[in-house]
Amino acid sequence: MQKIKIAILGFGNVGKGVWKILKENKEEIMKRSGYEIEISKVLVRDLNKPRGINIPENIMTDNVEEILNDKSIKIVVELIGGEEPAKEYMLRAMKAKKHVVTANKLVLAKAGEELFKTAESEHIKFYYEASVGGGIPIIREINESLTANKITSIIGIINGTTNYILSKMTYEGLDFEKALKEAQEKGYAEADPTSDIEGYDVVYKLAIISSFAFGAKINHESIYREGITNITSEDIKYAKKLGYVIKLLAIGKEQNNKLELRVHPTLVPEHHPIANVNDSFNAIFLKGNAVGDLMLYGRGAGDLPTGSAVVGDIISILRSNVDISINDNLGVKEIKDFGENKSEFYIRFNVEDRPGVLGEIATIFGENDVSIVFLTQDVINDDSVSVIIITHHCLERNLKNALNKIEKLPNINKVESIIRVEN
Ligand code: NAP
Ligand code: HSE
């Protein structure tokens, strides 16, 4: 059997997952790819770090030149993460005629075009299935199985860390910090978890899948973003009382050639399938004009699930599959002004317990075309109460205007939370 040499850049959670899969499933992979895969080099930053895995010392290196200058290495698997030096190493590997596999959504969202163009001009393959949805084969699904469809909407939970945190806060009453620490220990979080908890990771992933699904170049900076750092146990408790759970959703919709792209925590009805996607699981709901509704569900983070997608890409290169990697023919589509989007909203106010306060809030909502569908209140102490309101669908712009005015009322202590609702 022919041998093929590959190199892995980065030997953290995913790098080790890839190593384990290539060792554990060696026989199957040889049969399916027609090659014996030899991991020739593994690049790390710190050669002295204990790896907890049996790996020959002579293949570990902290010098990338040993990989990029080695003509016998045909595939480079980038699992370093972050923007640089990951991007530079990928571009240099491509220019050295090596195929590249990555799980790096940040680099794809920020510099995808440069990478696609270089891959095309160098006639090498560039695959990145693991960059969205961990083990869920969403990119292949959209580009191959669903390619006959016009996709009109994508709604997904596409970050394992935040879904783990929200699940633990909802069902086990854990506080945010403890749940985040657990997610980090399990290998779900990015090296800097700000990317997860502030929603950037979801924005990068939404930019990648939307570009395929809607056939348009997407600037990740044009996607509306809110993370989960403002979600409190009070909101989780009130949401539960009202029959909802809070999830960090990625939403992409196309209507009349205009795109609506947003990432934010959302109240979803507890009986909806998406409400029951917990822990590090991800789920993506697609609507195609031929297939109708479709849901993909699986582990969105972790060493082996992500490694599964990475090794799948390596095997695809070896099988010389049809080229699904190049994101060409992308048009330009207008992204709707965020204020023009419509949502239902959950709003929690802390107000003075005085006669007429509810009337003042309701009047300002009415004046701004925001209609209330539900209202309840809960005593906080002798002076103040929590007022919780759920609105009908209204324009983002109208809600913002109303809240700007309500905030200035003398009896309003604070607008504690504003969370969108998807019914
Ligand atoms: P990680 O655990 O932080 O591992 C990163 C590895 O890269 C470490 O081995 C580190 O070396 C090495 N590294 C970092 N900077 C380097 C540099 N300048 N030169 C050489 N080596 C360097 O990260 P991870 O969780 O495996 O994630 C890797 C990639 O996969 C990221 O792009 C991430 O977004 C993506 N991803 C992760 C998951 C997941 O569940 N974790 C899922 C999907 C996609 P040392 O060990 O010596 O420090
Ligand atoms: N940090 C990411 C997450 C890894 O938690 O989903 C998978 O992309």
Topology summary:
Elements: E1 2-9, H1 13-24, H2 26-33, E2 35-43, E3 60-61, H3 65-68, E4 73-78, H4 86-95, E5 99-102, H5 105-122, E6 126-127, H6 138-145, E7 151-157, H7 160-171, H8 176-185, H9 194-197, H10 200-214, E8 224-225, H11 233-241, E9 244-255, E10 258-269, E11 281-288, E12 292-299, H12 303-319, E13 334-335, E14 342-352, H13 357-367, E15 372-379, E16 384-391, E17 394-395, H14 396-407, E18 412-421
Parallel strand pairs: 1-2, 1-4, 2-3, 4-5, 5-6, 8-10, 10-13, 10-18
Antiparallel strand pairs: 7-9, 7-11, 9-10, 11-12, 14-16, 14-17, 14-18, 15-16
Helix pairs in contact: 1-12, 4-5, 5-10, 7-8, 13-14
Bound molecules: NADP nicotinamide-adenine-dinucleotide phosphate and L-homoserine.
Polypeptide structure, described:
This protein has 423 residues and is α/β, with parallel strands linked by helices. The protein has 3 domains: 2-133, NAD(P)-binding Rossmann-like Domain (Rossmann fold, 3-Layer(aba) Sandwich); 138-300, Dihydrodipicolinate Reductase, domain 2 (2-Layer Sandwich), CATH 3.30.360; 339-421, 2-Layer Sandwich (Alpha-Beta Plaits), CATH 3.30.70.260. 35% of the residues lie in helices and 29% in strands. It contains 14 helices and 18 strands. The strands form 2 sheets. Strands 7, 8, 9, 10, 11, 12, 13, 14, 15, 16, 17 and 18 form a 12-stranded mixed β-sheet that branches. Strands 3-2-1-4-5-6 form a 6-stranded parallel β-sheet, sandwiched between helices. A hairpin with a 4-residue loop joins strand 15 and strand 16. The longest helix is centred in the first third of the chain and has 18 residues, at 105-122. The protein is elongated. The chain starts with a strand and ends with a strand. The mean pLDDT is 95.
